[in-house]
Amino acid sequence: MAVDRFRLDGKVAAVIGGTGVLGGHIASGFASAGAAVVVMGRRQAEGDERVRLIRDAGGTAVYVRCDAMDAASLAQAHRRIRDDCGEVAILLNAAGGNQANATVTADKPFQSIQLNDWHACVDLNLVGGVLLPCQEFGPRMVENGAGSIINIASVSSHLPLSRVVAYSAAKAAVLSLTKWLAREWATTGVRVNSISPGFFPAEQNRRMLFNEDGTPTERTKLILGHTPMGRFGDPDELIGAAVFLASDAASSFVTGSDLAVDGGFMATTL
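Above: the chain's sequence. Below: its structure in token form.
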């Protein structure tokens, strides 16, 4: 009998940052592929709404509050998931975002960035975005002998973007840590990969991309001019990549890889 390699039936998928736009859409995608999804994050209203959307579509989901920057909060959430849902087989780390105070502008040169603002951005994307969740969930996956961890990197992991200096540095570190963990756990049955999204309008970048009247900013014109497809991505366009990496049947020999979903952004130089 043929096996549908892109099904996640019987798997528990924990989506940290599932209360956000990109993480939430991927959570819905996991559920549509058959996974029991745990939407995780600090924002109860957004978490409950994502769970409602998943359930209305016929999927299985619960919301578990957690703070990805707090190891104790992650541990408590993990215990609850194991008690209520079972062992986590898929971990998506989608917490992160840019910090305005760690951004370079015409009025704020690189040397004016304050150390606490730098740490806030790097810690959000690297420590809360990958390190602490992998420390909490990864060892149990290793013990179980199976698991897929997917970290959300960025095109700026590869090509440091203008202005967003701390974010670019943090996302480059996300890519490096992803590869390091993939190597360390390669023989245990745990795979670690990343996705590098291009430009997807979401809460953290909307002001940078659109003026108050909804017209595109000059930065948007530069981005789209550098993107061969000539448009922004739709959050649902991340689902296929995430399901592929989550599925042991589809990507059993894939670890330490980064999958760009960027409309060709990184393929363009001039």
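The domain at 12-202+234-264 is CATH 3.40.50.720 (Rossmann fold).
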